[in-house]
DNA sequence: CGTGCAATG
DNA sequence: CATTGCACG
């Protein structure tokens, strides 16, 4: 989605090769504060959920992603952009200790495109696929697991595409997805995890000014996210850290963006308000973890 | 072209993982004899020509192919399967010391397919592309350089394809190519270099028995090569080493074939008979040189 | 098994 | 600058 040219970064260094990591970084590296172990009400966390856009599950495994997950040891793991059908899931993932219940969705007729996974320590009561909208349910973008006290949704929201060629279907998705989440929320609290493919506010990306017409930061996509919040959902990270700058979860591979923290916050834990109020302990961004062009995020809830 | 199954190699080792390099190699490693510096008539070599199917020029450069060529220091270098249009030739090749005159041909409308090159120390009198047969001249398979005393032809003969799906056009090629070479030979002696995509006799591949219906060893392709020899051309290597076994220039990447010398002799220097009689000093196979699924070959002529 | 493409991000 | 699948070998 960030298809910015080099102009923003091209320093006027004369003839020399521009340094890959300029001394004065345009955005500060995000400093991750210590874990908040409890809710404001003093309840200690009992549920740990990690979400990660892996940008190709098989390559991610080779880069040690599964190893990191094992150390992180979440109770639920939500993966996006697996680019991998269920039968091709590598054994290193199938055998992840503590996550025996695994569910996979992939795009029909488009091998290597999209795809999400949801892995859990305990068996869900029920698992569903998609959002109940035929237009959007053939690309392996959503898995919903119902647990006794909440729904967990692993979602990979469609990218609006270069030149915004797929902005219209994306906006239709936003509406349909919101209705889907409302439906869940009417039953039980919802924990939505994943790559929502939008940076909500200017603070959520490094270069807001030059990205007003870029996929992931158009007014329409941002409004879609605002409507989600208006419908009784909470952006967990931003609630806890309203002023945090440079907190990104995605950096394009192009031009060494990650080393300079030229990034976007595209990955979220979005919670039903009552869950955010009662259960949210912390929402972490694991900026330093390699393995993908996105980093993992982890939420801690007191259930 | 070798699409043999694993059955030939699958040893009955019981449960164990079969070793990649069995102790008893089915074909001996080829032992390259010392260079013959002179013709039988006692004339010392003055022209050194190297030919190599590089299987992708850009990858080959990264694997040090250009470096090896620099050390080999031929007067003429013929490359096949460059998979690279002229403008994409890497600078390491463009700047090869001693080979300033460079000519490139590539497949029209099929980027990354086929392609040949011819590089020379001295400027050719004339360079032509193709073989004068419209059916065959759009794939970048032949470059002919005319020098004062001979033609040098860099050729990548079309593969008959898996299941011999392209055997018919290949046989038409063989006829047209022979006519083309006859026409050259009527003017000046010819040195044909390249991947002729045929193993002529049983001695020219490791597993003749199981490859009678494989591209590169069908009776029709072998007869095509026999016709070439019958038209007054000489297989330089086989003339000099009529009994040499295990002398191959290609090994499929599959199954560790190269380590076991399960190969084919597909790359040749084919000379006009008068050139073979008067000028041929040696014809070498550089079996150990890495960088492609083919190895380079080098001819030494006393011009 | 490995090349270089194409579509996608 | 990466991923995947693909055609080709």
UniProtKB/TrEMBL annotation, chains A, B:
Where on this chain does Mg(2+) bind? 53, 81, 195, 197, 293-294
Q: Which of UniProt's keywords are assigned here?
A: Cytoplasm, DNA damage, DNA repair, DNA-binding, Endonuclease, Hydrolase, Magnesium, Manganese, Metal-binding, Mitochondrion, Nuclease, Nucleus
Region Disordered, annotated ranges: 1-43
**Gene Ontology biological process terms in this record:** base-excision repair
Specify residue ranges for compositional bias: Basic and acidic residues: 1-15
Q: Where does the entry annotate site (Interaction with DNA substrate)?
A: 294
Q: Which top class of enzyme applies to this chain?
A: hydrolase
Would the keyword Mitochondrion be found if you checked this record's keyword annotation?
Answer: yes
Cofactor(s) needed, names only, are: Mg(2+); Mn(2+)
Gene Ontology CC entries for this record? mitochondrion; nucleus
Q: Where in the cell is it found?
A: Nucleus; Cytoplasm; Mitochondrion
Q: Where's the Endonuclease/exonuclease/phosphatase domain?
A: 51-294
User: Reaction(s) catalyzed by this protein?
Assistant: Exonucleolytic cleavage in the 3'- to 5'-direction to yield nucleoside 5'-phosphates
Q: Which Pfam families match?
A: Exo_endo_phos
Q: Where is this site: Transition state stabilizer?
A: 197
Q: Locate the active site.
A: 156, 195 (proton donor/acceptor), 294 (proton acceptor)
Q: Which InterPro entries match?
A: AP_endonuc_1, AP_endonuclease_F1_BS, AP_endonuclease_F1_CS, Endo/exonu/phosph_ase_sf, Endo/exonuclease/phosphatase
Co-factor note (free text): Probably binds two magnesium or manganese ions per subunit.
Q: What family classification does the UniProt entry report for this protein?
A: Belongs to the DNA repair enzymes AP/ExoA family.
Q: What does this chain do?
A: Initiates repair of AP sites in DNA by catalyzing hydrolytic incision of the phosphodiester backbone immediately adjacent to the damage, generating a single-strand break with 5'-deoxyribose phosphate and 3'-hydroxyl ends.
Name of the featured protein: exodeoxyribonuclease III
Question: What is the scientific name of the source organism?
Answer: Pipra filicauda (Wire-tailed manakin)
Q: What is the phylogenetic placement of the source species in the record?
A: Eukaryota, Metazoa, Chordata, Craniata, Vertebrata
